[in-house]
Amino acid sequence: MIRILGLSALMLFCIYLVYAYPQIAQKNADVETNATVQEEPETNKDILETIIPEFEYLHEEALDKEVNGYTVETYREYEIYRDKSGKVIKQTPTSNYEYIRYRSY
After folding, report:
1. Rounded to whole angstroms, how far apart are CA atoms 100 and 102?
2. Where are the domains of the chain?
3. CA neighbor of 56 nearest in space, from 102, 100, 98
């Protein structure tokens, strides 16, 4: 019972502070708008440092070969940076390759 009364008093005190001092809420709103204005003029290099790259294997048709009756397809791993809408900003090849071998008929 005492805990409930204590929590109720604390909640009433917080409500009083919100209505008695609205300038504090306004000051916090100003800080949030200034923070968004400062974030916009980032350079392309700064954006690439904050984006986590995805790694994907893409088919390199120029490197495909015929070996002992098998077709060997070559896939190279790429480090791909995308923006929020999914558009590719930068694509960098890595040194990792994967090979898939198929029997030629």
Report:
1. 7
2. 1-41, 43-105
3. 98
